[in-house]
């Protein structure tokens, strides 16, 4: 069986004519048997793709040919089966949505902290540490002493920070997220708000867990990831969480024993969040998934247009 390469990447770089790159990237990926999603915006590129080694390399080469993307970096993992059903190249206002207008995220690389220096930075009593992830992510793991904004969307972060700043005094700020993209955007936002002494963890939590020995680590718990692993621990070992495929939150074995848990339909976190109409749609989707599995097939759901 051919090993599938999964590559996750992002790059903040000014792309004023980003829409013109959509057809070429889509054609390249489809010709190479690569699937996944690539987001293009005026501020850069973000995505995850999977396919054979040669195909993934070809798409990454095409991405590196975009203006300002020659030094594009990516994280690789490997699987026996492609986790994606089709290839999409989407045009967006932002590659990660903050919703505050123009911020110069491409300059945030000036404020990196390498993983091996992170412990010293966040142990400084004059530094506040802010977790820029959503509440369900923070709920399964975080750095010691980090502030949890308790946001349900990254769009909520600017309003939270402005209120926090009105109520608290601080000298220095250190921020982190899963893989780096949200904290790069957050650093740019804080700088646009006049906060100059702000840094972020290069490569995010994942790079820290990959490179910092567990015995030296200040990370506590597991890290939620947006793929089939659900969560990982030190050395990126698979974690202990499953996922509710209705609300997409991480769930434990205890959650799955709850009467509120119905596979693909609800869990204790979302049992009261959806209308009966939505629950019926979830139930039909789960039924089709199970029927496809019984036939030895993969359920692909609604077919999206190539432009989506």
TrEMBL record:
Rhodanese domain location: 123-217
EC code(s) of this entry: 1.14.-.-
InterPro entries linked: Rhodanese-like_dom (IPR001763), Rhodanese-like_dom_sf (IPR036873), TrhO (IPR020936), TRHO_N (IPR040503)
SUPFAM superfamilies: Rhodanese/Cell cycle control phosphatase
Keywords: Oxidoreductase, tRNA processing
Keyword presence, tRNA processing: yes
Job description of the protein: Catalyzes oxygen-dependent 5-hydroxyuridine (ho5U) modification at position 34 in tRNAs.
NCBIfam families named among the record's database cross-references: PRK00142.1-4
Protein's name in the database: tRNA uridine(34) hydroxylase
Organism, scientific name: Hyphococcus aureus
Gene: trhO
């Amino acid at each position: 069986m051919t090993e599938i390469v999964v590559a996750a990447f992002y790059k903040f770089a000014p792309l004023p004519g980003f829409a013109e790159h959509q057809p070429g990237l889509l054609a390249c990926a489809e010709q190479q048997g690569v699937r996944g999603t690539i987001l293009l915006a005026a501020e850069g590129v973000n995505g995850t793709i999977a396919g054979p080694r040669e195909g993934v390399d070809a798409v990454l080469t095409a991405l590196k040919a975009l203006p300002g993307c020659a030094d594009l970096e990516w994280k690789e993992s490997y699987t026996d089966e492609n986790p994606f059903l089709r290839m999409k190249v989407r045009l967006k206002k932002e590659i990660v949505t903050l919703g505050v207008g123009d911020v110069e995220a491409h300059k945030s690389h000036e404020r990196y902290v390498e993983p091996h220096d992170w412990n010293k930075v966040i142990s400084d009593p004059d530094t506040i540490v802010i977790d820029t992830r959503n509440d369900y992510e923070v709920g399964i793991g975080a750095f010691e002493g980090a502030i949890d904004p308790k946001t349900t969307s990254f769009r909520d972060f600017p309003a939270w920070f402005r209120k926090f700043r009105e109520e608290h005094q601080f000298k220095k700020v250190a921020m982190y997220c899963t893989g780096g993209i949200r904290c790069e955007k957050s650093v740019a936002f804080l700088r646009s708000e006049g906060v100059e002494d702000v840094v972020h963890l290069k490569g995010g939590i994942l790079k820290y867990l990959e490179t910092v020995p567990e015995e030296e680590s200040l990370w506590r718990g597991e890290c939620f990831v947006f793929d089939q692993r659900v969560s990982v621990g030190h050395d990126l070992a698979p974690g202990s969480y499953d996922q509710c495929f209705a609300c997409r939150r991480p769930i434990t074995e205890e959650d799955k024993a709850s009467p509120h848990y119905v596979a693909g339909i609800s869990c204790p976190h979302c049992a009261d969040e959806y209308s009966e109409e939505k629950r019926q749609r979830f139930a039909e989707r789960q039924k089709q998934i199970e029927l496809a599995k019984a036939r030895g097939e993969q359920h692909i759901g609604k077919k999206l247009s190539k432009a989506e």
